[in-house]
Amino acid sequence: MDFTYLDSLLSFYEIPFWVIDRGQEQVVFSKHSSPLVDFNLLKSCRQAFNQNLLPFIYVLESNLGYLYWSNGAYDFVGGPLLLTDYSGLFQHQLPDLLDIKQMSVAECRQCLTIISYFCNQSLYLLSDIEVLWAHNEEYYHVRNQEIDFYRFEKSENERRHDSISYETTYLKLIEEGDEKRLLDFFDNQSLDEKNIGKIAETSFKQMEYMAVSSITLACRAAIKGGLNPELSHDLSDLYLQKIAKCKSEKELIVMTGKAQFDFCKAVGSHKDSRSDNIFVEQCKDYITNHLYQICKVGDISKKLNISRPYLSTLFKISEGITIQEYIMKMRCEHAAEMLSYSDEPLSVIAEYLCFSSQSHFGVQFKKFYGMTPRQYRQKNKYIKTNI
């Protein structure tokens, strides 16, 4: 095989490259590299190639990438390359990798398509070329030796998992919606870091994982305390989004504390307004979950498997208003939130909350708030700041 075109091409890209004769298992061409090739790496690449017969970029856990393609008779291997797309994952290793050719994944794909065309007239699309990570089956399991080493390290550093009593206590307080006792608990109790397992290599990542775990557990405790599951999960989703934006351990601690108290407060508010009648509570939950849809009393009664008149009577006795009045009240409350915290036009809010028209929205809103939606927005508009 003539490698003249390949030699010229590699002079342009300046990447280490080998061509291996598959029959002889010998390097028949090399450029910018030693004539020696890692045959364990080659074996892994061949196995991956046999699954889809397309060129690919093979990435080791060290962030070193290799280009691979085969025409059946020869293996074409380029690398190692430092893939700039993933360099942020391995910042601690960069000083040791500065002498290695750096390329983006897009550049690697272009190089592979050109090489395969010149060497075998095989035409591939850039989208055909995948990035494959070199994780073997063991990577996805915790091995016995890892467990043994972790236990030894725990013993050496006197770490134990004694956080369960602390966790059980504060989750119980969230479940009960008792803000005062939760505040007293956090003021008088502190969690020793030695009583928490090591779940990350850095203190920031450890705190981030703990924050995510705490919010997830608080969400479950709030649901157990009677908070509407959809509302609880919404609160969890939003706090987890905020956690992802935190830049320091202090921010993570403050955000986690705010989340725990918000869950506790939400449960407390729910308990204060909760009816002793299970059908009434289920009716209110249904309305909360279907507030942005046409919500009919007949649909609710059918869902709860009781008669419409009976449900209407129970609800009026318990809440002092009809189901339709409650639905309208909840819609106006949500509309008030949107007027304060969004720039959505009144027509959009009216449609979103299933008012029959913008004028109907205005009339109903004024009944509850004593002013039009436009006046309410002007008076209560939330102004975003960077503080």
UniProtKB/TrEMBL annotation:
Keywords in alphabetical order: DNA-binding, Transcription, Transcription regulation
HTH araC/xylS-type domain boundaries: 281-379
Keyword Transcription regulation: yes
Gene3D superfamilies (alphabetical): Homeodomain-like (1.10.10.60)
Presence of keyword Transcription regulation: yes
PROSITE patterns: HTH_ARAC_FAMILY_2
SUPFAM superfamilies, alphabetized: Homeodomain-like
PANTHER family the UniProt entry points to: ARAC-FAMILY TRANSCRIPTIONAL REGULATOR
Protein name: AraC-like DNA-binding protein
Organism this protein belongs to: Streptococcus moroccensis
Lineage: Bacteria, Bacillati, Bacillota, Bacilli, Lactobacillales
